[in-house]
Amino acid sequence: MIKLERIEKLILIFLVAALILGIAVSAFRKARPAATVKIEKFDPGRYKGSAADSLPARDAIDINSATAEELEAIKGIGKRIAGRIVEYRYQNGPFTSIDELKNVKGVTVGLFEKIKGRIRAE
Length: 122
Known about the structure:
By secondary structure, the protein is mainly alpha-helical. Helix content is 43%, strand content 3%. It has two domains: 1-36; 45-120, DNA polymerase, domain 1, CATH 1.10.150.
């Protein structure tokens, strides 16, 4: 039989304990996989033809809860206007209707006409 010093025994016990713990963690992860959430980015390109100008209400972006990045996904709204929309909402509270979006600097009547079928205010 191999004679081990006290420190060698402690190291051996530590290594065996670490091995057992690693096996237990691996088994636990296999038994309970991590929950995953699938988040789809808004893709206006999936709506072809005239339907792209007007989305179903569930797919329209809510201008009261959208982030600047989500607003930028709307064709015609860039980083600057998206930031202004969020800032306007922060200063004045939620939009009561999509028509109120015309009060945001940079949102022209022409731009509003292009995007009104892609947005909602709830």
